[in-house]
Amino acid sequence: MPAFIIVQVEVTNPEQYKEYQKFSSIAMQTHGVKVLVRGGQQDVLEGQAPPRTVIMEFPDMAAARAWYESAEYRQAREARAGAAKMNMYVVDGLSV
């Protein structure tokens, strides 16, 4: 069943965050990640939206964890240190 990584981001250092974006894009391309949402306009229907949202699709939970733990994404995380406040989690999707 598919799995989705959902990311909520508040960028605190835009210049440094550009480095993270560069390396995270390389990690996504290397691992064939399907990006469904990456930033974009948000329209709050209830509650409060984070400043930035990213949603990525993976074949399964193991593939999502493998991407997160990969050397390519580790480099991105290191580049992001101090540049953003981030919540990131993976959830199982539905088989339809």
From TrEMBL:
Transmembrane residue ranges: none
Domain of life: Bacteria
Database matches in Pfam families: DUF1330
Domain DUF1330: 2-94
Protein name per its UniProtKB record: DUF1330 domain-containing protein
InterPro entries referenced in this protein's UniProt entry, alphabetically: Dimeric_a/b-barrel, DUF1330
